[in-house]
Amino acid sequence: MFENREQAAEQLAERLAGYNGATPLVLAVPRGAVPMGDLLARRLAGELDVVLVHKLGAPGNPEFAVGAVDEHGHTLYTADADRVPQDILDEERRRQQASLVARRRLYGLAPIDPEGRIVIVVDDGMATGATLLAALRLVANRRPRHLIAAVPVAPRDSLGEVAAVADEVVCLETPENFISVGQYYRDFRQVEDAEVEALLAARRSEPR
Question: Domain 5-52+114-205 belongs to what architecture?
């Protein structure tokens, strides 16, 4: 059990301390992981940005991911998507992609190019892995030098798929009987867009 996202990020920073001085690019999955990414970037003297992906929720249970889409429309489905009609999947994909495009405009910052960089993709946890996998594949297509997936908690059977995409996987806890990410945090408050905007703007405005 983590007290909050900040405590989890501190522990990830300890595990990733070897990259301090290599100016890693920390890409956080909005919105929840952005405060974690900010802390990681500060501890490792790196840069902070977001990787815009969103899970595709199951009909009647939007918290259960049947896939994920990125801001460019690239889509990854899980095996559970086979039980969902294609027209419903298509509508959910269009809806979530549109929200990502709007979010990029809201944040008002062009993405930092990960090509040739050490890149750490961080999320606050992983359940099915669809969102993180989509994020990693999006970044992998941009040819980073070394791609790291960093999560505080995940089911063990999901990590194999992540390891097939990332060069390195850092996960603090792999509990049995995994139900949801939030159950492993005492404080799992919602992170709002205004906080994300402020964190990104502050990091970009700091002298290098």
Answer: 3-Layer(aba) Sandwich (3.40)
